[in-house]
Structures are given as structure tokens and as C-alpha cells.
Design goal:
This protein is of the alpha/beta class. It has one domain (about 5-240): P-loop containing nucleotide triphosphate hydrolases (Rossmann fold, 3-Layer(aba) Sandwich). About 30% of the residues lie in helices and about 20% in strands. The chain has 10 helices and 11 strands. It has helices at about 5-10, 70-80, 100-110, 130-140, 145-160, 175-185, 205-220, 235-240, 255-260, 265-275; strands spanning about 25-35, 40-55, 60-65, 85-90, 95, 110-115, 195, 225-230, 240-245, 250-255, 330. β1 and β2 form a beta hairpin. It is globular.
């Protein structure tokens, strides 16, 4: 039985109820202290992630989109425990990650992996690709000897490389090939959740399509669940089942991909979608929505709705009260959602 078949069968036979969330993010906050002076006193906090609530269900792809600096990557890193939350919980596969440590946390880490944006900086330049892929198996004592080599060879072929590539160093690959190595490394431990942190943004357009197709194929083959972080809406529309729109550390809208693209309810979502190029010539006459001003500092976010300083329909209540996400399948955090 091949490695792919073994991995697929393991995830299919998981006891997790497919109707229950694989990941539950509850009031997640990640703040970074601002230090000042010789004594190094804290004078404030950068609120990179400021109270997120959402679920990710088994087998789906949830896309997290927004401008650079809105907290997307920090959210992904917080979910896989590369960043310690300031407050809130991440419940993965029924386990509260804030309450487990040591060997138990180490065991959970094998089920949640991350694909980084820059494949070159995330790969050790002094290690051959075969050793890079074998290292997680050896560290977690999941294989040894010939079995390690067999799994490495099979996974290289699955991601579109060859056995001969195992002897090469990262600098000997193209950008697309390096990202394939990064994908293989994320899959070598047979995870349930993969956080894809802008995995195609550093690649050429033609290579982006190849990598997106590979991710979709691997999701079916390995029964994977993705958190897909991006700001390119073309990739998001192609690969995601649901979209969460993020602005200044908060989610302002979340819903099915088709619903978000056809009927965005938050003014910020409309701004993002107005910049998305549409190939249909009948729709090219739509107006581009241009908003004034810059994104406020996450160290000093505005009171009330975080988007009100740039929102074209903001009213007095928007400056005073923070809107909550309302709705079930399509939720929006806005006092005056657009129908």
C-alpha cells in the first residue's frame, strides 16, 4: 500500500465527527507589547489579532483575506501555536491547545502543519531535501531506516518532484519547486490541518496555477483541511469553500465563497472585490471603489467599528459602538450591512 493510500485511510478512519468543527477559534487575541526606555517599560500593545471567532470544518478550505498587516498570518501562526495567544482559545480536534503542554502538545503538532509564504527562507539551506523531509519523521519517531527513505521518495513524487531531487539543496531548485518541497514537508507527518500562509504569492502566475491545482488534488487525496491565507482573490475564489474577510485584527465578514463574491455585505468586502479583475466583458463596466485614508495603527485602533475612519457610509453609531458578527451562514460585522 502506498504512502498516499495509508495517509488517506488514516484520515478517513478518524473518529472526528465531520459535522463538528476541526478547529474552533474563540475570542483569539494576539497582542505585542510596545517597550520604551532604559527600564524597558510597556507603554502599549500592538493588537495584531483582536478577538476572532470562527470555525474550520473537516475537509473544507477556509480562506482568510485582507490587506497586508491586517493580522492574517499572525492568526494562522497562532492557530498552530507558533505564536502564543494573549487571550482566547484555539480548540483543535476537541483539545484546548492552551491547556496542553509538553509531550501532549508535541503529539498534537503532528496533526497541524504550515506552508510558509517564502519557501526559500523556510528551508534550511545547509540540508539536502531528503534530510529536510526525513527530519520530522525522525524527530517524532514515526519511522526509521528504509521506511523513512520510502516515505520521502513517495511524497516527492506525489508533489511533482522525483527521487533524484532528494540529494539537492534548496538553492538548486526554482521557486515553484521549492514550494513543492515546502508542501511535502507539511504533509510528511500526515496532518489533518494545513495552514497555507500565502503559499503562491511569491510565485509566477503560471506556477501559481500549478501549485493551486496541486493543493486541491492533495486535499482530496489526503482528506486535508486548509486555512488558506491570501490577498489575491483569484486564488481564493478558485480554492476556497468559505471566506473570512479580515480588517485591522478583526473579522468583518464570513460566508460561503459564492455568497461573498456575489453579495458582499460589508463595505470593506466590497472595496476588496471591486479591485478583483473579472474576465467577463459584460461586467467590466463596474465601478472601482476607492477609499480615502490609510489603515489605522493596530497600536491605537479607532473606537467603535475599526473601518469607520475609511468607510463611505459610516454614521455616528459606527464611531461609538463596535458591531458584532451577525448571521449564521453569512455573517457580517456592520451596523448598516449592504443587502
Amino acid at each position: 500500500m502506498s504512502t498516499a493510500t495509508i495517509y488517506s485511510e488514516r484520515n478517513k478512519n478518524s473518529k472526528h465527527n465531520m459535522n463538528d468543527p476541526l478547529v474552533q477559534v474563540q475570542n483569539l487575541k494576539i497582542h505585542y507589547p510596545i517597550k520604551k526606555g532604559i527600564i524597558t517599560r510597556t507603554v502599549g500593545n500592538v493588537k495584531a489579532v483582536d478577538g476572532l471567532n470562527f470555525n474550520i470544518y473537516p475537509g473544507e478550505t477556509l480562506a482568510l483575506v485582507g490587506e497586508s498587516g491586517c493580522g492574517k498570518s499572525t492568526t494562522g501562526r497562532g492557530i498552530v501555536k507558533l505564536e502564543e495567544p494573549t487571550d482566547g482559545k484555539v480548540i483543535f480536534d476537541g483539545k484546548d491547545l492552551s491547556s496542553i503542554k509538553g509531550s501532549e502538545l508535541r503529539g498534537v503538532r503532528t496533526k497541524m502543519q504550515i506552508i510558509f509564504q517564502d519557501p526559500y527562507s523556510s528551508l534550511n539551506p545547509r540540508m539536502r531535501v531528503g534530510d529536510l523531509l526525513a527530519e520530522p519523521l525522525l524527530a517524532h519517531k514515526l519511522a526509521n531506516g528504509a521506511e523513512v527513505n520510502r516515505k520521502v521518495d513517495e511524497l516527492l513524487e506525489i508533489v511533482g518532484l522525483t527521487k533524484g531531487h532528494r540529494a539537492r539543496y534548496p538553492h538548486e531548485f526554482s521557486g515553484g519547486q521549492r514550494q513543492r518541497v515546502g508542501i511535502a514537508r507539511a504533509l510528511i507527518l500526515n496532518p489533518k490541518l494545513v495552514v497555507c500562509d500565502e503559499p503562491v504569492s511569491a510565485l509566477d502566475v503560471s506556477i501559481q496555477a500549478q501549485v493551486l491545482n496541486l493543493l486541491k488534488d492533495l486535499q482530496k487525496e489526503f482528506n486535508l483541511t486548509y486555512l488558506f491565507i491570501a490577498h489575491g482573490l483569484g486564488a481564493v475564489k478558485y480554492i476556497s469553500d468559505r471566506i473570512a474577510v479580515m480588517y485591522l485584527g478583526k473579522i468583518v465578514e464570513i460566508g460561503k465563497t459564492e455568497d461573498i463574491f456575489k453579495n458582499p455585505k460589508h463595505p470593506y468586502s466590497q472595496v476588496l472585490l471591486s479591485a478583483y479583475p473579472i474576465p467577463n466583458p459584460h461586467l467590466r463596466n463596474r465601478k472601482r471603489i476607492v477609499i480615502e485614508g490609510d489603515v489605522p495603527s493596530p497600536a491605537n485602533p479607532p473606537k467603535g467599528c475599526s473601518f469607520h475612519t475609511r468607510c463611505p457610509i459610516a454614521q455616528s453609531i459606527c464611531r461609538e459602538q463596535t458591531p458584532e458578527l451577525n448571521g449564521i451562514e453569512h455573517s457580517v460585522a456592520c451596523h448598516f450591512p449592504i443587502s
